[in-house]
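Hi everyone, sorry if this is the wrong subforum. Our group has a chain we'd like a structural model of before ordering constructs, and none of us has done structure prediction before. Sequence below.
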Amino acid sequence: MSLFRRKRAKDDEGATAESTANTEGTESTAGAAEGAAGTRGAAGTEPAEQGAQDERDVPPAVPDRSRGPFDASEVPAEDGRLALGGLRLAGREGMELRFEVEETSQRVIAVTVGLAGSAAQLQVFAAPRSSGVWEEIRAEIAAAVTAQGGAVEERPGPFGAELLCRLPVRTEDGRTAHRPTRFVGVDGPRWFLRAVFSGPAAHDAQAAHALEDVVRDVVVVRGTDAMAPRELIPLALPQARPQPAAAEEQEPAGGREELKPFERGPEITEVR
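Answer:
Right subforum, don't worry. Here is the predicted structure as tokens:
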């Protein structure tokens, strides 16, 4: 399934594209409640204009990000994380990365982190300065899943409100099954981070811990450029780090380190 995206990902493992749902291209509905404050209608009460002004003066609710994900302004620039354009990731033992690249523009639009048999697709979007977008996007995802015959459950999670979606899929033997997909969103300062969990991490809290720690360690690099709400913040492929020349001449104890030509590294999936 492809939610809120104009491009469809080609999955090299034959999985459906429901875990690559994209909010790109949708229009922001921020400010829909503006002017909703009504008159009080009783003598001696405040006029409607004053009540509306008071409501606008109330700052928006800010999610607790004290333990992450972080904004680039909240952590040192050189902290050992892997720089991926709009995101910086902390590595984990056994972690694999797969990048989705838009075919026409060749820009990286998503990175999927594989760890311990589960995966989490990460994307980051611009958001209004005054409010977040996750509440609106949750409603849109739920409506789209329901329209396609799936089931949606909104529930509290470690990052706040999240969605557990079960979508009908056709199995190899022709039967209909339901694949769980878990949508998590975090509103930050002028950005929105979305993580889509698949595999055991979508429905098993214990299996999700390792990937949740990866998401919590994410640093979002929003930049200072003006961007429309929900505009995708582009990512980038990791840059190879230069090795010191002395390292080439030194051999580890016991001889030269064994090469591992079949060990999986970052992969690229083109988006058409």
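For your construct planning: The longest strand covers residues 176-188. DSSP finds four helices and twelve strands in the chain.
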